[in-house]
Amino acid sequence: MNQTDAVGMACASDVPAVGKWLHLDIGQIVAFDDFTQNDDCYWWSQMCSTCVDRIGKDALENLLDDCGSGICGVVGCNNESDYYIDFPDDKIKFV
Ligand SMILES: [Zn+2]
After folding, report:
1. Long-range pairs for 87-93 at CB < 8 Å and ≥24 separation?
2. The pLDDT of residue 73
3. For residue 46, how far is its CA from the centre of ligand 1 (angstroms)?
4. What is the reported pTM?
5. Confidence class of residue 14 from pLDDT cuts 50, 70 and 90?
6. Which of 31, 46, 57, 81 could share a disulfide with 75, CB 3.0–4.6 Å?
7. CB within 5 A of ion ligand 1: which residues?
8. 75: CA distance to ligand 1 center in Å?
């Protein structure tokens, strides 16, 4: 996103995320070391089916979208991803 094209406000959660982890709290903390913010200010990443199965698909059900591509964003995992995951703003923090 080109910041100079932004009209009005910047993203409220537009924090410098370099070198940080994103913690997703879904009753358990899932840590991501690779994540991206889209033009609508939502944070997203990718997950592989191994991580999804380990965490529990039920817990992630409403956040996942099929057809992810790239490398799984979960800390310590370098598998090819199978899903996109959209992070709810009220369930994430940067640590
Ligand atoms: Zn993974």
Report:
1. 87/22, 87/24, 87/35, 87/42, 87/43, 87/44, 87/45, 87/63, 88/63, 89/13, 89/42, 89/43, 91/24, 91/25, 91/26, 92/22, 92/23, 92/24, 92/25, 92/43, 93/22, 93/23, 93/25
2. 97
3. 8
4. 0.82
5. low
6. 31
7. 48, 51, 72, 74, 77, 79
8. 8
